[in-house]
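Morning, I've got a small favour to ask if you have a moment. Here's the protein in full, and shout if anything looks odd to you:
***
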Amino acid sequence: MAGQVVRIVAASVSIANRAGKIIRDVMSKGELGIVEKSKNDLQTEADRSAQRCIVASLHAQFPKVAIFGEEQLDPHEKVNPEWIETSLDPDVLKHKSKCSDDIKNAKDEDIVVWVDPLDGTAEYTQGLLDHVTVLIGVAVKGKAVGGVIYQPYFNYEAGSGAKLGRTIWGIVGIGAFGFTQAVPPEDQNIITTTRSHSNRMVIDSVNACEPSEVMKVGGAGHKVLLLLEGRVHAYVFASPGCKKWDTCAPEAVLHAAGGKLTDILGDDIPYHQTVPTRNMTGVLATLCCDHKWYCDRIPAATKETLRG
C-alpha cells in the first residue's frame, strides 16, 4: 500500500490538472474578476475557483491533513461538485516502493499541504501565460518532501488546437518527473529573479552574484522550472516577498531532482503548520551549481537586514 505522502502527491497531480482547466476556462470567458489584495498582489476568479477545487478535493480524500491555501475564502461556501477530483495518478503510484521509510510512514498529523492555486497572477492578467503555475507542496515534519508544479498554458504558443498543459512532480528520494533536465551553459552565469517585486536589496544581491544575464520572470514555480530545464544557473530573491505556498512545491521538486532551495542565508525553510506564512529571509535556489558560492556572495548588509 502506498504511504500517505505518495497518495497525496498522486491525488495532487490529478487535482492540479483539474484546477488548470478551471484557470483556462476563466481566461476563455474573459471575466477575470480581478481584486487587488494589496500593492502588487492581485487575485482573480481563477485564483479563487482553482483554490476551491484543490482544497475541497484534498479535504475529501485526506480530511485529517492540514491544508493551507493562499487565498482567504469563505470555508462554508459550497463548491461546484464537478470540481471535486478524487482520482489518483497511476504514474505516481507506481513509484511507491521507492519511497523512504520516513516519508512512507508519515502520519496525517506530520503532514502539511501548501497550495498556491495560481502562482503568477499578475502575469496571468498580463498575458504572460508561460509564467503561470499551479503549486501543491507536501511537507512532513516541516520539510518539503513532495510537490506538483502544473503549467496550464504549457505549449500555448504552438497555436490553436495545440494540447495545453504539463505536470511536473517530485518526491524526495524517488525523483522528479515531467520535464527534461538540462545543464546550463558552462561559460555563463544566468540568474533569475522577480520581475514585479524588486528593490535595492534584490538588485544588489543579484549583481553581487556576477550574472552574465538576468532573467526577470514571474512566479516561484516558473523560476524553479527554469532551473530544472537548465535555462538559468540560480534563482536569487533577497526579499521577504515569497510565502510558504510559493516555495514548498518548487523546493520539493527541485530537491527531488538533486537541487537545493533555501533562504538567502543558506538555511532551510520550515513548513510546519504553525510557522509564519511569509519567507522573511528570501529565497536562493540552485540545481547544477554550487549553492554555497551564491550564498557567500549575498552582501552581509542584506543578510543582516533580512535577519531582522
Q: What stands out?
A: The chain has a mean pLDDT of 93. The longest strand covers residues 111-119. The CA atoms of residues 13 and 294 lie 32 Å apart.
